[in-house]
Amino acid sequence: MSERILLTGASGFVGRHVLDDLAARGYRVRTAGRSATPASPDVEHVAIGDLGAPVDWQPLLDGVDHVVHSAGLAHADGDIPEERYRAVNTEATLALARAAQAAGVRRFIFLSSIRAQSGPISEQPLSEIDTPAPSDAYGRSKLAAEQGLAGLDLDWVALRPVLVYGAGVKANMAALLKLAKLPVPLPLGALSARRSLLAIENLSAAIAFALTQACPARRSYIVSDPEPLSVAQMLAAMRAGLGRGPGLIPVPSALLALAARLAGHSGAYERLANGLVASPAALIKAGWRPPAETKAALAQLAASRADAG
C-alpha cells in the first residue's frame, strides 16, 4: 500500500503543483486547508479554517506517514503585524509538528523561505552555513519555526526556496513576464546582478526527495535552480520562448534608478537591480537532482502564457 501524506496549503500556487506531483509519484494525499473546497476532486480534503486559530490535528494525522506543510502567511508588503506572522507561520507550524510527533509521523517537511536566512538582496552568495539574518517579520517567523522544529523529537526537513516560478505564478515573476511580452525594446540590458530562481518542477522534486531516507533530516536546505541569472538573461529567455530576440537596451543603471525614483518605484527597481544568489549545493550533494533547466523553463513558461492569451 502506498504511503499517505498530509499536505497543507494545497490550494496555493506551490501547493497545487506539489499535490499533482505527489499524486503522480504514487502517494495517497490528504489535504487540509482553510477552504471547504478541495484543491482536487480526487483527494480527501479536510477544512481546518484559519491557521492562526487552534486546530485539532490528531484526526487529520490518522494513518499518515509524512506531512508536507506548505500552508502559511505569505510575504507581503504592508502592515501585517509581526504577531500575525508568528501565529500562522511559527506557532501553527509547531503545533502541527508536535501533533505529528505524537502520531508517529515518519517525516515532516516544512516549506520555509530564503527570507528566513536573508533579506531580499545579498552582496554575497548564500549557503546554509551562514548565520541567518532575516530582515522582516515574515522571515523571522519562518526562522523561528525552523528553530522550534529543532527542539522536537521528529525527523524534519526545512526547505528554503528562493523565488518560485511556473504555470500560475503571480506577483514579481508575473510582472516580469508582462514586461517580456511587451512588443518593444526594454532598457534593462545593463542589469547584470544575478538572482537565484526556482522552477516549480524543481521544488516539487526537492520535496519528493526530502520525503525519502536518502535525504539527511533535522536540518534546513536552500532550494534553488543551480544557475542564477541576471534580469536581462531572464527576459531574454522568456522572449526566446515567445519566438523573439532579447530586445534589450543597456541603459546605465543610474538613469534607470532615477527614472524609478521619479515614478515612485524605487523599491521594485532595487529588487531588479541587485542580486541574491543562494546555493543549492548541500541538497544536490545529498542526492537531489533538479529536472528543469532555468532558461528552458522560463522560455516554456512564457510560451505557455502566450498560448493562454
UniProtKB/TrEMBL annotation:
InterPro entries: Epimerase_deHydtase, NAD(P)-bd_dom_sf, NAD(P)-dependent_oxidoreduct. It holds the Pfam family Epimerase. GO terms for molecular function: aldehyde dehydrogenase (NAD+) activity. GO terms for cellular component: cytoplasm. Residues 5-213 form the NAD-dependent epimerase/dehydratase domain. This is UDP-glucose 4-epimerase. It comes from Bosea lupini.
